[in-house]
């Protein structure tokens, strides 16, 4: 039940947590006031700005509590949200007439309306009236409209649960039940089908508890619990979350853990889980990100500000497998590694949104020294980077990656399929399209087999490469985090490209370093991303300091990576 924001919470409160959210919300309000009229803001951006204003306005402890100077900006935002809304109740937010994008805004607007209504100030009656019209109008759109991605089901359902709480309508509940009947898309690993930290922390994990609480489905909390437990093994010591296995935009991005704050806090309080409490307190201690935005939910649900259970260390010494992602994580204190063989490329050999296509198969951290990516690119008929077809554990902390690529040469069609007019079906042979009726042609193949065995050793890892089957040049790319310094390598250009010709190279960031080598010769071999990238002028060059080691197959080579 929504409690009045002016009422003191009758429980033992985590004052440090509340104080942090209050301070960060207060700091954001001047920027909201000065930018609220920006014509570039989407409906989602305007709704979030309104939420920030409302949080400070209704919360008794805030320096902006019942601040009259917030009324006009709030009214402007409400009127703008009304003006932007289509007759069908939706908004254009990137996508046109988009129910799921509308749902993101509606969740914020429901919070705003409920908090203002509970606060009951005459000065906000005008804004409340406009917001109510917007919410009611959007409710029917969400109850009848469609969506695009797995996580949209839960965002729309959570928005409908909020609308139904404020303005009950059986159609809202019925549509929630329709989406829930499809089942929650969680794997036994605890990871959702999109394998994305972004959509887990920003959409699914916040949405499922909202549905559970407002729609009477408490069993949904178990999916969030499992996801948070899995996330413990994807956390980096510096507050990042490993995203290499993602199927979404974050598969090549840095993702920070602060988005998970209320999720870890809520489950820590509910379950008495000291590990979750440790993560929540670590996020609070860092103070990074838009933590002030969480104040609205804490005002709505004061129990989230309760004292956390006694802290229990989160896992920091383990080898943990995620079989459904074909991913393994190794952590030894401040030293971590990720081994990945689970791209979708072998099942769906295209580059597209919603697929895991990242060719990075290994990452390594030694304190602040970060090797973000290890990739292998043989120059084999334009087939691009090595992407492992799975991951196999071969020892306590040893994993094998591997792939075989076969490229055909097409032989003459059998006589019964030949056409005197030379017209044949346009088709693909896996690399390119031609009017050659490839499916009916006999073939002879050229083959390249690539194998990488990753083994934990004292102070780091050995990566044993074996390439066989064809005589081709290859390049291994090590991409280190920008901001560090390299030694022992040759600079190739001014664009962040280097080569380790011989001996050992060193990457340093502050007091931490990673040694790598040995160099494998001076031959220059370009990284070939493959025709699916080169044909549309795409790029697979990662951001950072890129060091190349080159050679020629068939060969065996061991790359040693050591923390120093």
Strand content: 15-25%
Helix content: 25-40%
**Structure summary, number of beta strands:** 23
Main β sheet profile: 9 strands, mixed
The total of helices stands at 13
Features:
alpha+beta, nine-stranded mixed beta sheet, eight-stranded antiparallel beta sheet, 564 residues
Summarize this, please?
The chain has helices spanning 15-35, 43-58, 71-84, 99-119, 125-144, 150-166, 170-180, 197-215, 221-231, 261-271, 274-286, 295-300, 531-534, and strands at 91-93, 95-98, 240-241, 255-256, 317-322, 327-332, 335-340, 362-366, 369-378, 391-395, 398-410, 426-428, 433-435, 443-457, 460-468, 473-480, 485-487, 490-491, 497-499, 505-509, 512-517, 545-552, 555-563. The protein is of the alpha+beta class.
What layout of secondary structure does this protein have?
Elements (H helix, E strand, L loop, with lengths): L14 H21 L7 H16 L12 H14 L6 E3 L1 E4 H21 L5 H20 L5 H17 L3 H11 L16 H19 L5 H11 L8 E2 L13 E2 L4 H11 L2 H13 L8 H6 L16 E6 L4 E6 L2 E6 L21 E5 L2 E10 L12 E5 L2 E13 L15 E3 L4 E3 L7 E15 L2 E9 L4 E8 L4 E3 L2 E2 L5 E3 L5 E5 L2 E6 L13 H4 L10 E8 L2 E9 L1
Parallel strand pairs: 19-22
Antiparallel strand pairs: 1-2, 3-4, 5-6, 6-7, 7-8, 8-9, 9-16, 10-11, 11-14, 12-13, 14-15, 15-23, 16-22, 17-20, 18-19, 20-21, 21-23
């Amino acid at each position: 039940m929504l409690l009045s924001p002016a009422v003191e919470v009758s429980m033992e409160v985590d004052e440090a947590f509340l104080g942090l959210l209050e301070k960060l919300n207060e700091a954001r309000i001047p920027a909201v006031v000065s930018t609220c009229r920006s014509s570039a803001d989407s409906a989602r951006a305007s709704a979030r700005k309104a939420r920030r204003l409302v949080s400070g306005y209704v919360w008794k402890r805030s320096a902006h509590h019942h601040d009259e100077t917030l009324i006009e900006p709030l009214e402007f935002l409400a009127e703008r949200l009304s003006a932007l809304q289509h007759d069908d109740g939706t908004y254009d937010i990137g996508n046109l007439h988009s129910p799921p994008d509308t749902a993101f805004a509606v969740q914020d607007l429901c919070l705003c309306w409920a908090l203002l209504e509970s606060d009951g100030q005459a000065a906000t009656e005008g804004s409340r009236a406009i917001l109510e019209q917007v919410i009611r109008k959007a409710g029917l759109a969400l109850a009848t409209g469609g969506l695009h991605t797995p996580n949209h089901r839960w965002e729309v359902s959570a928005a409908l649960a909020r609308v139904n709480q404020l303005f009950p309508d059986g159609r809202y509940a019925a549509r929630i039940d329709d989406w829930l009947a499809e089942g929650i898309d969680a794997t036994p690993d605890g990871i959702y089908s999109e394998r994305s930290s972004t959509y887990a922390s920003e959409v699914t994990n916040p949405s499922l508890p909202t549905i559970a609480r407002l729609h009477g489905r408490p069993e949904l909390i178990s999916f969030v619990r499992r996801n948070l437990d899995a996330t413990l093994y994807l956390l980096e010591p510096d507050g990042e979350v490993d995203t290499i296995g993602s199927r979404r935009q974050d598969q090549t991005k840095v993702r920070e853990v602060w988005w998970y704050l209320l999720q870890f806090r809520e489950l820590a309080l509910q379950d008495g889980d000291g590990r979750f409490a440790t993560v929540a307190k670590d996020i609070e201690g860092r103070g990074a990100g838009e933590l002030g935005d969480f104040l609205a939910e804490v005002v709505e649900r004061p129990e989230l500000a309760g004292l956390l259970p006694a802290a229990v260390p989160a896992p920091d010494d383990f080898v943990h497998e995620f079989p459904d992602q074909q991913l393994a994580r190794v952590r030894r204190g401040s030293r971590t590694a990720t081994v990945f063989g689970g791209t979708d490329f072998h099942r769906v050999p295209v580059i597209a949104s919603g697929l895991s296509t990242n060719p990075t198969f290994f990452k390594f951290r030694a304190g602040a020294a970060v090797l973000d990516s290890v990739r292998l690119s043989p120059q084999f008929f334009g087939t691009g980077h090595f992407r492992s077809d799975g991951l196999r554990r071969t020892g306590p902390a040893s994993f094998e990656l591997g792939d075989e690529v076969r490229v055909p040469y097409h032989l003459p069609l059998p006589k019964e399929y030949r056409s005197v007019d030379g017209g044949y079906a346009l088709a693909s042979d896996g690399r390119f399209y031609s009017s050659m009726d490839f499916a009916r042609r006999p073939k002879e193949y050229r083959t390249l087999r690539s194998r990488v065995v990753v083994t934990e050793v004292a102070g780091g890892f050995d990566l044993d490469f074996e390439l066989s089957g064809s005589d081709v040049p290859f390049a291994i790319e090590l991409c280190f985090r920008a901001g560090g310094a390299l030694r022992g390598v040759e600079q190739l250009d001014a664009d962040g490209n280097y080569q380790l010709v011989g001996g050992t190279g060193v990457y340093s960031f502050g007091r931490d370093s990673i040694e790598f080598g040995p160099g494998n010769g001076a031959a220059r071999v370009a990284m070939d991303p493959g025709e699916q990238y080169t044909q549309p002028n795409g790029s697979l060059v990662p951001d950072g300091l890129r060091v190349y080691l080159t050679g020629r197959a068939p060969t065996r080579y061991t790359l040693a990576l050591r923390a120093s």
